[in-house]
Fold these 3 entries.
Entry 1:
Amino acid sequence: MKLTEIILFGGTAEGRELAGFLGKNNINSIVSVVSSYGGSLVSDYPSLKVRTGILPEEDMRQLFKTEMPDLIIDATHPYAASISSTIKTVSTDMSIDTISIYREGSSSEGYICFDSLDEMISYLNTRGKGKTIYSTLGAKASDGLSKIHDYEKRVFTRILPLEKSLHMAIEAGLSPGNITCMQGPFSEELNEAMFRHTGAEILLTKDSGKAGGFPEKVKAAEKLGMEVLILRRPETNPGITVEEAEDLILKRVRDK
C-alpha cells in the first residue's frame, strides 16, 4: 500500500518553498530535514509529515520501502554532496524517480576560489597572516578553521543557531566570544555591521547563491575593502529550478 506520494529532502529555502507547494496542493509527502529547528521552519499542512535527523543509507532504504513514494526530490544544500550521492544511489537501486533542485550560483569573477577547505586554510596561513577572518562556511568548517595560525584571536564564525553547531565550533577550540549563532540570509546592511564590528579583513564564504544571501554578503565585504575567499561547490549533476519542479509535480498528479 502506497503511503506517501513524494519524499522531499532539504531544510533549504528551496526545500521549504517546495514543501509549502506540496502542502497547498494536498499532496501526501514526507519532508526530511536534519534538525528539529529545520523542521520547525516547514509550513504546517495536513498532507505533510516532517521527519528529522540524519538518514544513513540503510535507514533511507527502509523509509523508501515502507512509504513507496512515486517521486524523490533532492532539495538539499549545494554543498551537501554526500547526502545527494546517497539519495541518488538508493533511489536508482529501488527504481524510484528522482529530481534534484538546482540553486543558481553567483559570479566568482574577481575573487579567489578554492576547491577544498584545506587549500583555503593553506592560503590563509601563508597570505593571510595576522589578518582578522570572518567565516560564513558553517559549523562543519570549525575543525579546519582551528588550523589557522592564532585562530583563537583572529577567527570569527557565523553559524546556525543550533546546539549541535555551537558544540562543534567550541569543541574545535573557537573562542565563544567570536561565534555568532543566527539564521540567514542576511541583508547587506546587517552583514556590513557584523564585519565592521569584528574588524574583519577577510571573508570566507561558500557560493550559496541568491537564496543563500551571497550577493549581500560580498557587497558588504567589498564596501569595507575586505578580501573575499570562496569555497567552490562540489561537482554535481545539474538539476531543475523550483518552478520547473512544481510544474513537473502538477503534471504527474494530473496524469495519474
Entry 2:
Amino acid sequence: MFSFLVVLMSALQVVICIDDSLLQCNSSCAVYDFKYFVDKLLQQERELSTYQSLTNCSAVALQAQIEAISAELFYPPLNYGGMKYIISKVPFYNADHAIKNCKAFGGYLAEIDDTDEYTALKNYLDITPNVNIVMIAGSDAVTRGTWLFQRTGQPVPVLDWAPKQPTLKGQENCLNLWKDFGGLMMDVACDSVNFDSSFMCELPSVS
C-alpha cells in the first residue's frame, strides 16, 4: 500500500525507506497492527546510526506517502507552543505500547505542563471525531495518589478530575482525558484499555 516512510527518530534522527511489510493488517479487527509496525521501526533505530541515503526515493513522492500514512494512523494534528500533538486512530494494547508508539515517531505521551496547554488539548480532543477516552502522560503506579510523568518522573502539575475520579482502585494508574466530561481527567488501568480508547503523543514541531 505504501512504499516509503520517513521516521524522525529522536535519538538518531534517522531518515529511512521502508516497504509495505511494516504495515500489516490485522484481519480480526481490520486495523493496522500498530505493535508490529512500531517494533520494526525501533529495530531499525537500533541498527542505524547515520542518515541513510534515500536511494530510489523521490522527495515529492516520499512526502505524499508520509502524509498518507499519518492520515491512516493519526487524526489531524494540533500545533501548539512549538510542539505537535497527535491522537491515535487505531487500537493499542496498554500504556507501554502507547509509549513505544510515541517514541517511534520521535515523541512521548503528551505531558500537560500548565493550564494553557491543558485547555488547548481539551479543545483538540473536543474537535477530534470518534474519540472519547485518550491516554496522556501521568501515572500513580509508584505511589497511589502521587501522579508522575513516566518519561521524566516529575510531578504532573495539572490535575483536573471528572466527577467521581480518580477512583484510586485496583490497577487504575494511568491518566486519561475524557471527552464525555469536557476533557476532564480520569484514571484507567495501564495494562489493559478499552478497544475504543486512543492515546495522544507530543512531538517536536517540524517546520
Entry 3:
Amino acid sequence: MTDQPRIERFLEQAARMASGAGIHPVEVLQRIQAAAEASIRDGAIANAYRVQYAPADVDRIARLRDQLARGAGRMLDELANGRGLRQLGPWQFEFVEGAGLAAGTVRVSATYREPAHRPETAATGATRVITRQRGKRLVLDDGTRVPLTHTPFVIGRGVGCDLVVPDLSISRRHAEICSGAGGSLTIRDLESRNGVLLDGVRIAGETELPPGAMFALGDARFWLETDA
C-alpha cells in the first residue's frame, strides 16, 4: 500500500517513546492500525477506538496516553487520506482496563460513532440557496488570493469543497462561510477536529466574519479581504 511507509514512521516514533518493561507503544499502535483496517467498509473507516490494557499497565498507560492518542490520530489521518476514506467524526480514543489481560498485552476494538453534535444539513432533495458574492476574497498564508464567489462556501481538504486545502490539520469539511444579515458574512465550524479560531479565539456556533478578520483552520490561516 502507498500509505504503509508513512505509517511505519509512526511506529518508529512510538518505539522511541518506550522505556522499561510493560506494554509497548508500538504494539498499541499496531493493534489500532489492525482494528482500523478491519473496520473499513463502503469507503469509510471507524473513528472511535477502545483500547483495553492489563491492570498491571495502569501507570505506564497513564504516562503514554496523550502521546499514543496523538500518534494514533496522525497515523489514522495518513491511512484515511492515503486511501481516500471517509470518517464519521473526529478520531476518538478510550483507554480502559481490560479484565483477564496479561501484563504487556492490549486489545483494541473499533466502532463508527456519530459526533455528539452535528451541524444542521439540508434534507435530501431540499433546495440549497446559493448567494453570489462580489469583491470578496480569502487571502492565504502564502499570499494567494481566492475569490469568494458565492455562499455557502465550504473549506476543507476533501474533494468537493469550494476551497480544497491539502493540509492534514484541516478536516475534510472543516468550515463554512455563509451569508449574514445586511450583506455580512458568517463562519461556522463543521464539527472539525481542530476547530475554527477567529482572531485567535475558538468559535462556537455561527459567528460573524467581518472584513479584515483572520481565521485559522488547523495550522492554516486565512484573511477576509473586501473591496473598499
